[in-house]
Amino acid sequence: MVADARDHQWVMTSPVCCRQQQIDDYRRCNGFSLIELLVVIGIIGVLLGILLPTVSATRQHAYRVNEMAASRELIQAYTIYATENQGWLMPGYVDTSLPKYRDLAVPDKFGRPLSTQATDRWPWRLASYIQYGIKGSILVNDMLALADDSSWNVQTYPAPDWGYAVSLYPSFGLNMVNLGGDLYHSSNQAGWISRASQARHASRLIVFASAHFSAAIAGYYEIVPPVKLQQGMVHGQPVTTTSMWKPVDDYALSKPPGWWGNVDPRWDGKAVVACLDGHSELLSLRELTDMTRWSNAAATEGNPNLGRSGNSDPNWVP
């Protein structure tokens, strides 16, 4: 019982009310208790555990969509080149210092002369057919950092200069051993084609695919087929072959990309590929062991294993 000085009457005050008042006063002075903080932190941790995979999956989906769109833009430019050059496919690698290839040399997107080595590869020559819009086409996603010469550095992207680096590390590699020509390989490559009209199944013939130079660099200018068919008769006759891939079950990002032709299955075990007819799709490494997807000779024979019977490694399996 306490006295109320205002009306000189006695008022009953509950002990429970006093205790609650003390708790409220304590909280106002001292904030949350340790247990309450731990509960809140636990709830936040659970929510982050639910949200982060969703955010990561959404980001990966957006990246995959970007790469699919870029592949379609590249194959359209590749087709335009052929249309404007009487059906001839763009050579993947040439020596532009030689008189016969000098006309293929182009400047960079700023109009500056490129080194001979930079224009020897296909990226800058194809860039001229997309108004040098290398962002989102030749370079996409993680490789966008290379799209501006001010962001290039030799430690991150080993190359003599920026133009050379762009030519060396595009997001996609070109199947240049079998299409369009390669200064070093196509002259002795059985079944390679120089014109789009020569393709037996343009809808299956791979032109570009997701590529990588290393675990840190998600780009490289060349993709290599599982088997190289050396010069010789193809139809019903033996040809000299060279196995270029390791078994696909051994694939790991930590291993040399060249063991699987520099193809990068970065989308849940699949690579983006663009075919000669202009469409893009996703294919796994195992699906990419089908030689009819790479070589017109294999497509003509209808033989996905063309060249493997003469493989120097009898234990090799796709």
How would you explain this protein's 3D organization?
29% of the residues lie in helices and 10% in strands. The chain is built from 6 helices and 8 strands. Residues 310-318 have low confidence and may be disordered.
Briefly say what this structure is:
The chain is built from six helices and eight strands. It is an alpha+beta fold.
Oligomer: single chain
Strand/helix succession:
EEHHHHHEEEEEEH
Measured as a percent range, the helix fraction is: 25-40%
What Rg is obtained from the alpha carbons, in whole angstroms? 31 Å
User: What do the pLDDT scores average to?
Assistant: 81
Biggest sheet, spatial arrangement of strands: 3-4-7-8
The computed structural class is alpha+beta
Rounded to the nearest angstrom, the distance between the terminal CA atoms is 92 Å
Main features:
318 residues, alpha+beta, four-stranded antiparallel beta sheet, two-stranded antiparallel sheet, 8 strands, 29% helix, globular, disordered C terminus
Note the topology.
Blueprint: E1 2-4, E2 9-11, H1 15-30, H2 34-84, H3 116-120, H4 122-127, H5 162-168, E3 172-174, E4 206-210, E5 227-229, E6 241-243, E7 270-275, E8 280-284, H6 296-301
Antiparallel strand pairs: 1-2, 3-4, 4-7, 5-6, 7-8
